[in-house]
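Throughout this chapter, every protein is written as a compact record of paired, labelled lines. The reader may check this reading against the record printed directly beneath this paragraph:
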Amino acid sequence: MNYSGWKNYHAHIDKGFLIPPYTYKDEPAPTRAKWTRDAKVLMTKSEIKLTASLALEKMHQYGTAYVRTHVDVDPLYELRAVEALLEVQQEWKDRMVIDLIAFNQEGFDRFPETEILLREAMSMGVNGVGGHTSMDKDGRKHIDTIMDIACEGDLDWIEFHTDETGRVDDFHLPYLAKVTTERELKNKVTAIHCCSLANVDDKQVMETIEAVAQSGMTVTTCPTAIATRSLTRVKELANAGVPIQLGSDNLRDYFNPLGSGNMLQYGQLLAYVSRFYEAEEIDQLIGWLNAEPENERVKQQLKELSLNLSYQGKTNTELLAEAPLPQLIEQSVK
């Protein structure tokens, strides 16, 4: 069984793999968020590069060919993480294609100056800009601001942590689909998580999924989010024709102390939670893990990377059940 390398469509490698003196403790989320902010003030560029490289080593070991990672941009990190990850991107270009999303993790309410920093990050050469619909009091305004900033440049990706709380009063996916349609951005836009979709009423579900499908946007699900909230309605979205992607999300940081970087394990977790058990469903899931982004630049970079994974076994069901290391990773950079 051969595959062209797994695709990890959402990660945070700028703040994963905690190094001493930072250690995980299972405190409430606001406490761990504060610890993350404190760490961002202190972490040096070299430390950021180290944590990112540790994550990438794990991903590469398990056959990841492409990773799209968010990189925090705010007055805490300033632009250190962007600088660090741009260097890492170049250092890894012969082993993995890495796309960088300048990300407003903390919100404009807390740090208004992030708007200026995001524009500076764009000028430095990031591949996209990202926001978080739950971090500001006015989620719609947050979406509009990120869209306005992103559309000033020639970016490949505009991404949002969308309705990550899972609360029915924190439901911005319909508005994001509306704006994506109005601006004709289509698959440049990705909605990540979309947890509230799992909890709103059936009428809202049907209307929203239809709007998302018509917009042309993509939805990325991160199965490890099940630890704190419901996953989105992956099957219903896929059945409506919405492109689905998977991501590892956080790796060994203050939000998730675990994480191997093995995309087959994340696929396995999604299969358990959302019951992708029949052979054709597992084939569909493996297809998502293997699918290239609809972007000519990335497709060319992956072609030049020329990664080929080899596994023992005869079926995708067997592959997902065991989530093994590749038997062989062949690579010939062109």
Observations:
- The first strand starts at residue 2 and ends at 3.
